[in-house]
Amino acid sequence: MSLLIADIGASSSRWTLLNEAGGTVCSNLHGPRIPGFNAAGADPAPMLDALHAWAMEVPALLAADRVQVYGAGCGAPERAARMRDVLATRWPAASIEVGTDLLGAARAVYGEAPGLVLILGTGMNAGFHDGVRPITTIPSLGYIIGDEGSGADIGKQLFRDLYQGRMPEEIQQAVFGGDVPDLQEVVAQVYRGTAPARFLAAPVGRLVPHIEHPYVHGLITTRFRKLCALLTGWFPAGQRQRVAAVGSVANGFHDLLGPCLAEQGMVLTEVMAEPLEGLVRYHGGRSA
Known about the structure:
Nucleotidyltransferase, domain 5, 6-stranded mixed sheet, 5-stranded mixed sheet, globular
């Protein structure tokens, strides 16, 4: 039986199809890009359309017998059911299992070992994995009142600094090409757009080459310290001795994340940009 594994984030999604022996049939880890989908309320059409286009090139994709998905916004039963219903439109005959993105991250970095796992991409999530499932988790509050240290959180501060005159000209040039985005358009995207968190997070990756710049260093460190204070206040000392992190923000700024965690007595043991590679090892090994 073939197994399709997916890590679906708010901005993008990664997919790998394994054959009965656990070998890779196809994967988009290095392309094509497939949009993401947050089951909390986003539109699944861009992801489904991209999957359909990819399946025209790789017909075996839609013939998967089992689909194992780890998705953003799938913590509540009704949201997991929505994700399952969305995927059933492409795989009506398959057995579809939906887990949280946090469970996927934990299995990717720890397998069946315990440890604190941190997701830092467009959004943020964290939980202590006991080897089976995350048993202590931070409530997901979303990009407006939560997601400390995430791309959306950093992006909000980036736009505040831009419009309030605190961003150095050279960083403005590097991030926005020297042209200040129209404020009304930004407000429309943030308050009435279809993917506001993704919009806020979009420019953050352009800061990575400038990580040594005092402004960038200070901005990222400040947001990471907010995150680390949250972790120490939420997780008991015995659960936060070691931390593994996944996601684009964790990977891009790991040189700043590690020291911020260390200030609070935590050790960053592993950083993984894409959890799908670890999930392929986890599921491939179990099915082989």
